[in-house]
């Protein structure tokens, strides 16, 4: 019997990136239900799939708008008819401000900002569009990533935004550390009190992250949530306890091309397919479903080197296997299309339409 | 004054991948001269640039044929008129054998094999093309990657190939560990003696790798060399002593989008641009030319988090910088085009035509 993975390899080539639409549908439903239960709007982050086809499934399930990480992504989704887009990123530079203005002319778009230089550049986009640009202030509540570091800075930036005729202060953007919700709550409460002191209020309080689905609803005042990875899931999400193997919708279909030594093997997926993302130290670069004891120990660009020493059964050359990647978002970013399957049948290809939109 | 990088960012967006054609030309010349001096043919590996435009520069300088790592890459280069292609990879599976046969019908192509299962599948390609397919035996002389592990296996595989009417035994493919040339030489000599015993000879002995340019010519009997990375160079090549900063032709042009803390900064290039390739533990994910003391300490997908604690001068938000990646091959693999510059002017775009050809 030919496996589904082998049929995908035969029809679309090996390696291919395969998604199971039934699992996708279940993941989409789960996210939507979790948001409903927590009383927040679901604004999925499309960076994971970069596909208007997948985003349409999320919208049909009840998502209110989408999140993009790049202006170029937002342009692709606007072109595909999505009209409520949050770009959770500092946009700056003359080319981008011009493009943002053009986008705002046709689409409801909100951007994030975490510093005065970015805020100072944004009004030009509103002026180009002929209507104010909505801006949320990104706040860093302990993760050490983007975002203002103190509530006072957040309030100051909100006032700066609100003072500009071509901008509209819309609220706050958070990506809370999973283990510091109290700290995040205190930060948020202080900012909101500070806003009130200046006659402002946050219409949007946007939280984010698939790992934070575990505690969705715990942050008082949150109005919406941005989760990306949950649509496909991966080893990282399994490791942090928000997904099981059955929730993993995406596999890299790969072929064993060599068995150079007794305890060694090679698959035709290396760092140019699975990426060198370690998933925060998961051990190996992916999980082979058919040989869970195998370790993808190291990479060349087009070789994945397998340590088979712990495997009782070992694959033969020519065998097609399915690999759960460490991190799906960066894997999808490598390919132009996803091969969609359902119920052991190949459905067709889904373009990764916003892949390569770096800027 | 606006820097060249800032102009690239303005015209092509930030981030962009920029190459300096003068440096490319110098690197191409250096490789060609090194091969000439060593008395081996230059068969550059196009996996680094995936661009027929760049390969044409290499061909014009004297390269004899090209090396591809994927059948899909070979198809793109054949379409662009390259007619002497070595695919240094085990090709197998019915779809690929069919495609290989079609390619062989129009193009001189040789493939590598390191096991009998792969060899058994290859004659069908020759049959489809109506002419024998040339095959080289890949030998592992200590690197623990692809390749037969012993000279005896190499000879056996060569005999297997030579026994099949639709195949032609062409020789041997090596990728010697930089520090074990004597071991490689002994392996090679043993194989060649074994071939003679069976009335066979290796027309091609293909060596590989940019790091091995340091000892090019040292392996007696080598007929050609496959080097990829040298065309652009990167931090890895600097670390192993085959390139200087002035030899680095490729930079990621990025913009500082945040300075959240005194010693922190964020550029708009994360793991989806620079990739998570550590370059074998170089420390940080790239070298910022304008701030060499800055450390690209960690990544999100679209954020590069800078540790600026060692920097006397620190960048401001909006500043455009140039980053030498750890590993250029995987960076080029992320983008659809390279922005070509020369002599402080933008020349235009070069398509990465074989990007995304996974299979």
Quick summary:
Chain A is of the alpha/beta class and 359 residues long. The first copy, chain A, contains eleven helices and 17 strands. Chain A starts with a helix and ends in an 8-residue tail after the last strand.
Task: Describe this structure as you would to a colleague.
The structure is a homodimer of 359-residue chains. Chain A has helices at 4-12, 21-38, 52-60, 71-79, 94-106, 116-121, 123-129, 151-162, 181-197, 235-239, 328-332, and strands at 16-20, 41-42, 66-68, 84-90, 108-113, 133-139, 167-174, 204-208, 224-226, 250-258, 264-267, 286-288, 295-299, 304-307, 320-325, 337-342, 345-351. Chain A is an alpha/beta fold and 359 residues long. Chain A has two domains: 4-18 and 236-351, Beta Barrel (Lyase, Ornithine Decarboxylase, Chain A, domain 1), CATH 2.40.37; 39-231, Alpha-Beta Barrel (TIM Barrel), CATH 3.20.20.10. In chain A, the strands form two sheets. In chain A, strands 1, 10, 11, 12, 13, 14, 15, 16 and 17 form a nine-stranded mixed beta sheet that branches. Chain A has an eight-stranded parallel beta sheet with strand order 2-9-8-7-6-5-4-3. The longest helix of chain A has 18 residues, at 21-38. At the A-B interface, α1, α5, α6 and β10 of A face α1, α5, α6 and β10 of B.
């Amino acid at each position: 019997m030919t496996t589904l993975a082998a049929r995908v390899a035969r029809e679309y080539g090996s390696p291919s990136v395969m998604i199971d639409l039934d699992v996708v549908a279940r993941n989409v439903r789960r996210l939507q239900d979790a948001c409903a239960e927590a009383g927040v709007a679901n604004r999925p982050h499309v960076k994971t799939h970069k596909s208007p086809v997948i985003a349409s499934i999320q919208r049909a399930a009840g998502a209110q708008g989408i999140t993009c990480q790049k202006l170029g992504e937002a342009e692709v989704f606007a072109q595909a008819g999505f009209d409520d887009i949050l770009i959770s990123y500092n946009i700056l530079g003359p080319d981008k401000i011009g493009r943002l203005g053009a986008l705002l002319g046709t689409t409801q778009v909100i951007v994030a900002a975490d510093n005065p230089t970015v805020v100072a550049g944004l009004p030009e986009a509103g002026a180009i569009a002929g209507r104010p640009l909505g801006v949320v202030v990104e706040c860093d509540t302990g993760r050490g990533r983007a975002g203002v570091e103190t509530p006072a800075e957040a309030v100051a930036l909100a006032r700066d935004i609100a003072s500009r005729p071509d901008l509209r202060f819309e609220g706050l953007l958070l990506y809370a550390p999973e283990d510091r919700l109290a700290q995040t709550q205190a930060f948020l409460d202080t900012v909101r009190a500070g806003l009130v002191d200046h006659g402002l209020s946050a219409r949007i309080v946007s939280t984010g992250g698939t790992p934070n689905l575990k505690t969705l609803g715990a942050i008082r005042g949150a109005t919406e949530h941005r989760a990306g990875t949950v649509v496909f899931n991966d080893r990282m999400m399994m490791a942090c306890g928000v997904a099981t193997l059955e929730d993993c919708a995406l596999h890299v279909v790969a072929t064993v091309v060599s068995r150079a030594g007794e305890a060694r093997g090679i698959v035709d997926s290396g760092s140019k397919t699975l990426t060198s993302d370690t998933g925060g130290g998961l051990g190996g670069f992916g999980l082979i479903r058919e040989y869970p004891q195998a370790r993808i120990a190291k990479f060349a660009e087009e070789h994945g080197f397998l340590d088979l020493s712990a495997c009782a059964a070992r694959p033969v050359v020519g065998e097609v296997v399915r690999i759960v990647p460490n991190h799906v978002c960066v894997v999808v970013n490598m390919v132009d299309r996803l091969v969609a399957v359902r119920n052991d049948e190949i459905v067709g290809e889904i373009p990764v339409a916003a892949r390569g939109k770096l800027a």
